[in-house]
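Hello,

Our lab assistant flagged a job as stuck in the queue for most of the afternoon. It eventually completed. Since we weren't sure the result was trustworthy after the delay, we are filing this so someone can double-check. Below is the sequence as submitted and the structure that was eventually returned. Let us know if re-running is recommended.
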Amino acid sequence: FSTSVEVEKLTGNLCGISRPGHFKGVSTVVAKLFEITKPDIAYFGQKDAQQAAVIKRMVADLNMDVMIKILPIIRETDGLAMSSRNAFLKKNEREDALILQQSLKRAEDLFVCGERSSKRLVSSIKEMIDSKKTVRVDYVKVVDSETLKDVDQIKDKALIALAVFIGKTRLIDNALLKVQDD
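-- returned structure --
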C-alpha cells in the first residue's frame, strides 16, 4: 500500500538506528489494526519499550480512541526476557544471555544506591556484558522513558535499554528507573 504512519521523533534512537524503517512498518500495521478492530484497550509489553512508546505517541497524536496498557516484562525462570528469538540460542549462548538481566539488575542496584550518571550506569552494564565472549553490544543507553532522548543525569525517571547480538541472534532488554520520593 502507498500510505504509512511514522512517529519520527521516537524512532531515531535505540533500535531505530540499526533497524531503519522498522517502526514505520509497526506503526502502520498497528494503526490499520486499530482502525479495523476498534479496540477499547490494547496491550503491549515493556520488553519492546520503544515500540510501546511509538504506539502510545501515535495513539495520542492521531486521537485514536484506544487505551494503551504497557505490561511488565515476562521473564523465563532463569531471568532471560521471554522472546521467540531465545529459541535460536545455542546452549552456551543461552547461558551467556543471562548477563543481560544480571547487568540491568546491577545498574538498578547502583541506581537505588544513588547513582544518577547515565555514563556510569552504561559503563557498568557494558563491563559485565563484555565479559561474555559470545555477546556483542549493539547499544546500551539511558533515555527518557517517554521521549526516548538520551539523558546524562537521571532526575526523575528513565529507561535503561540495551540490544546485543549473541552469535547471530539479536536480543533486547530494559529496565525502568524512577527516583523514589523520600
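-- support follow-up --
The delay was a queue issue, not a problem with the job. The result is valid. The mean pLDDT is 95. The two ends are 53 Å apart (CA to CA).
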